[in-house]
Design a protein that fits this description.
Number of helices of chain B: 5
Oligomer: heterodimer
Strand content of chain A: under 5%
Distance between the termini of chain B: 10 Å
Shape of chain A: globular
Number of strands of chain B: 0
Radius of gyration of chain A: 27 Å
Order of helices and strands of chain B: HHHHH
Chain lengths: ~625, ~120
Amino acid sequence: MSPSTDTPPNKLFWLNTLTFSSNTVQQTRIRSLAVLLAAALLWAYALPQVNLRAMADFGLLSVLPPTFYVALALVLVNFALLVHAHPELETLLFLHVFLLILIFHATPPILYGTLRYSWAWKHIGVIDYIQRHGAVNPTIQFLDAYHNWPGFFTLTAVMTEAAGYESALTFAPWAQIFFNTLNLGALLLIYRTFTQDKRLIWLSVCIFFLTNWVGQDYFAPQAFGYLLHLVIIGMSLYWFKKETFTNTERIRRWLRKAWLFNLYKSFFRSRSDDEMVPYQTRPFERVGITLIIVLLMAAVASSHQLTPFMTILALGALVLMQRTQTGSLALLIVIFTLSWVLFAAAPFTQDNVKSIIEDFGALVDNADQTLISLGEVSRDQAVIATIGRLLTLSVMMLAGLGGLHRWLKGYRDIAVILLILAPFLMLAGNSYGGEMLFRLFLFIVPFISFFAATLFYATPESGRGWKTAVFITLTFTIMAGGFLFAYLGKERQFYFTQEEVAAAKFLYETAPDGSLLIEGSKNYPGQFINYEHFFYVPLSREDWDEQLEFMEDPETTFVRWMSNERFTASYLLITRSQKAEVEMLGQMPPGALDVIEQKLEASDAFELLYENQDARIFILADGNDEEQD
Amino acid sequence: MRKYAWPILLTTLTLLALLLVYVDLHSPLRPLITFAFLLLCPGMAFVRLLRIDHIITEFTIAVASSLAIGQLVSMMVLYLGIWSTQANILLLSLVCFAGVGFQLVQLSVMPKPAADEEING
């Protein structure tokens, strides 16, 4: 790949120098390393200046200093220039993307010192259960899905105990960096099967990390399953790529008309000009690769509900359209998945089969449940949600234009098209708890990132001029802005202070088995110790009318609930993060939790068991004798 | 000698992990060694046999395989009702030793490099 030579050097010499075009490789290396070092130092300088207590409704964006954004800009601009002029310097490109991953995904754990997202705390709770019991309970009342698909949790329980840690909390906050770095490797494997143009490969990678805002990369079975899914797809395409179509005679007879067959051949021409030539595997290698894919599939089928179906759809599409030779492997994952669903996870399947059947075929409903109603959330959260949607639509539009551009240039990226379309079939299956659209986007974003990149580098010969580098830089700027809002804009609810963690820890370690825990909402560091011993009632999930009722008179309602002799003790917990969530998402009337808190404090029927800056725990005044430490 | 670097590294990490877990030594290095073992060894023990020429691809597949093997072994131990860290690490160690064994066999049947390649390393 030679630098651009289509402009007179004496007119645009300064631009060529700036864009590396006239630099030697050694100069480029030195300059890029200097830029990376500067960016890393600026990022490190920015972090101690953040005052998390000042975080407002735009999340971390409201408290990050300008040097953070300068660091990010340096990385992205230099990457754009480097990928344009010297894409052969892959180690440097890797370092850029890795620093980008750190800036996006190491910033929260470094700043917070606690685990982000309430769901991640529940995963800690399942691991804690396994550590204490050495078993799972598929019929457990709470978090039963995890006990029926326990693979991720058994693995992390082993990791916790082998490392000598008491809890997986020690390493869970760093999961995003771990999974995103490995996803980088998986994406490189996949993209290398689509094209040999390194500019296109690395630009696709960077676009992926700038647009994958859905936040499914945290300490969870989904992130684990997603990584394995990408590796399965990559290995299937890399080692089992089909070179030519078989059964063309059968298709010719079926289509009958010669023009139809010619149309079919032109559409499904075996591969694009710059696709990887099918790898010639030796028998021993073939067996080894197959065994690895089988292991990955077994792990996916037993660790996550949704991912194996996405893998089945992706592999199935690739096999049916003769892009890979992994027909038997596609069949095997169907067998693994159905076996797990019907036998190992039978308790869960039996309990939920009715809702699964009801959701089946309801495409619009399944999609609609994902999207929050912008009229119900706070103004700033409506802005965040809108930006997230715009980012998604923008990258899909770029992908559409890029894919069309590439098609018109004579390239047939059939595998890419299939991998984008196949997951949409899941919309017909289930709403997945109201998250199907997010998960759909997660599984197609690697491939729409590729098509978005082809807008700039459709062919190995195109995009050589300096204007392409400028357009890429502008695109990066817009994407990065959208990503920051969408990914870090909700942190006021996702961030948990040390005080909130201390309150939750006190509660879970103090409350006797069989206690009732009334929670302002589920959004707090909850259910991470002894979780199976308690009953939970999140106030934010009660009907609106009931919420108004207990806002009006919390004493009457909560005395009745907490006096129930069914429970050994009763507690009511209200935290800062719960208040943030219900306010941002409009889950309760405005100020509801503050009002409840104030009324309970003023009430003689209740006693404040525990209090710190960010959390309060109430008990009935004639109830629990435990004193706060 | 360089061709034995990976078998030596994998064997060393495996033995260290076994020692740390079985003797329950609490050392600042324990997390590093056990994580390196769990995240790399079971997968790399077999992935090295495939002679993948792209280092990022090799590491990605090795770590993904290690995670998958670790998960499947841990689930087997759980469902058999013999849950213990030692059992998990022991079984994973056996997997690693098997893979290293295959690597040594492969290395022994590989053609020797030419004399000038040996001199140049």
